[in-house]
Amino acid sequence: MLRISRRTFALGIIGTCCLSFTPTIAIAQADREREERWQQLVSYLFDDREVVPTDTLIKIEAPARAQDAALVPITLTMPEKDKIKSVYLVIDDNPIPLAAHVTFGPAADAGSLRLRVRIDTYTNVHAVAETKEGQLYSAVAFVKASGGCSAPSGPSDLEAMKGMGEMRLKLSEPSQQGNPTAATLMIRHPNFTGMQMNQLTRLYTPPRYIEKMTVTYGDQTVLDVAGDISLSTNPAIGFNFVSDGRQSMKVVASDNKGGRWERAFDVSANN
Amino acid sequence: MMRILRKPRSAILLALVVFMSTTTGAPFSVAEIREPDGLWTGPMQGQTPSTLNGARLIDLAGLVALLPQQPVLIDVGPAQKKPKDLPRDRLWLPTHRSIPGAAWFPGAGAAVLEPAKERIFFRRLEELTGGDRSKSLVIFCRPACWGSWNAGKRLVARGYSRVHWFPGGITEWQEAHDVREVTPERGWGPER
Asked: CB distance A195–B94 less than 8 Å?
C-alpha cells in the first residue's frame, strides 16, 4: 500500500500547480524579452521617439512560416495613405535589424508597399509608419524562418554579381490618368550580407548591398529607398504611383561599394 | 533504437540496420554519413551522421522526456560574426535565442579549439555538472551542424557517460516551445 503523508500530498499539489503554470510563465517571459528587444531597437533606431502600436495606420502581412528564409515577401498597407510620410521595416532579431526605410514623394500613392527580405530566425517583424506630422506608429507580425542572412546566394560570388544593376519595371495594369498604378521594380544585385560563407574557401563574402534607390516620375519623386543587407538578393519593391499618362519613370540605384545604376522606363498609357 | 554503437561492431550493426530496413521496407537514407574517427574537420555546415559513438541521439520527444532530470543543456551554435567592412552607421545588434536554461558556448564544436578555450569549456562543464561525470548532458545547435557533433565527441572523450546529442537543436525545439535570449558563458567570449 502506498502511504502518502498529508505533507507530501500538499507538496504534490503545489508541485503540480507550479508545473502546470510553468509553460505560461515561460511564454510570458519570452514575450517580455521580445518586447524588451523591440524597445531597445526603438531607442537605437528612432532616438527614443515614441512608437505607438496601431491597428489602422499601418498593417503588415507576412507569411507565418517562410518557404525561403532569404526571400520572404512582406506587404505593408497604409489605409490612411495621405497621412503617411515614410515607412520603416524592422526585422527585430536580424543582426542588422533595419531592413529598409522608404520615404514617399509627391508622385507616390502611399497606400501599399511590397518588399522581399531575409529573415534569420523566428522573429517579430515591425512595420513603422511615420506620419507627415512626425509621429510613429507600428504594426507587428511573427515570422518563422531560419538562416536567411547566411544563406549562400549561388555557386560563386562572381556568378551572383553577373548583370549587377540591371533593372526591370512591371506595371500590373495599364496606367490611366488620375488612378494609382501598381508597379514592381526589380534590380539585379546579390545584396551580399557579409554573413554568407563560401563553403569551399570558408571566407565570408564582404557585404555589398543596395544602399539607396530613388524613383522619380517626371520631375517628381515617387520613392526614396534606404536599403540594407536584409533586402533579398535581386531586391524587388512594389509600390503605387499616380500616373498622368505622359511622363517617364527614372530609377537611380547605388550600393555601398560605389556601384551606381540608372535607368529610364516608358510608363505612358499608350505604351 | 539509437543505442551506443561500440566501434568494432558499428559496421556490422549498420549493415544489419540497412538489411532490416530494406527487408521491412522502412525508409532509409541512402547517403548515410559515416562517423569520422576523431573530430570532424570539414565544413561545419552539412549533413551529419545519425550516430555519435558513446553518446545517445535524441529527438525533441527524447529531450522533453529527459528534462525532469534537469540535464545540463549545452548550446554550441556559432555567434553572428560582424562583417568586416560593415559601414559604421549600421546598427549591429545580434541576438541569440536558445532552449531556456542553456549554457551557450559559441563555436565550442570547432575542430580546433585553442587550449585556453578548451580549458574554459571543460572547467565550466565541471561547474555545471557539479563534477558528476554521469550527469546527463544535452549538446545541440541547429540541424546539419557538425559543431554539436564535435562538442559531444569532446565530452564523451572527456569521460562524460550520459551525453545526449540533439541534432534537431534550437530549430526543432522552437517548433513546439519558446526560446530565451542567452549570452555566451562568462569567460568564454563572444567569438564564433
From this structure: no
Among A99-108, A196-205, A215-224, B97-106, whose mean pLDDT is lowest? A196-205
Mean pLDDT (whole number) for A245-261:
93
In the A/B pair of chains, how many CB contacts fall below 8 A?
A: 68
Indicate the angle between helix axes B115-129 and B146-157, nearest 10 degrees: 70
For residue B93, the chain A residue with the least C-alpha distance is A95
C-alpha cell at B112: 580546433
Cross-chain residue pair A37–B80, CB shorter than 8 Å: no
DSSP per-residue letters across A189-202: ---B-S-PBPTTT-
Phi, psi dihedrals of residue A4, rounded to the nearest 5°: -110, 120
A151 touches chain B (CB under 8 A): no
Edge-first strand listing for the sheet containing A72-77: A59-61, A72-77, A108-117, A236-242, A180-187, A167-171
Predicted local distance difference test score (pLDDT) of residue A90? 98
* One pLDDT digit (tens) per residue for chain B, 192 residues: 444 444 444 444 444 444 443 434 344 445 688 899 899 998 888 899 999 999 999 999 999 999 999 999 999 999 988 888 888 888 999 999 999 999 999 999 999 999 999 999 999 999 999 999 999 999 999 998 999 999 999 999 999 999 999 999 999 999 899 899 999 998 887 654
Burial of B170 per CB tally in 10 Å (0-12, 13-18, 19+): buried
Separation in Å, CA of A225 to nearest CA in chain B:
15
Q: Return d(Cα B51, Cα A5) in angstroms, integer.
A: 46
Which residues are CB-contacts of A84 (< 8 A; sequence separation ≥ 6)?
Answer: A57, A58, A78, A104, A110, A129, A130, A131, A132
80-99 in chain A: CB under 8 A from chain B: 93, 95-98
The answer to whether the CB atoms of A206 and B84 lie below 8 A apart is yes
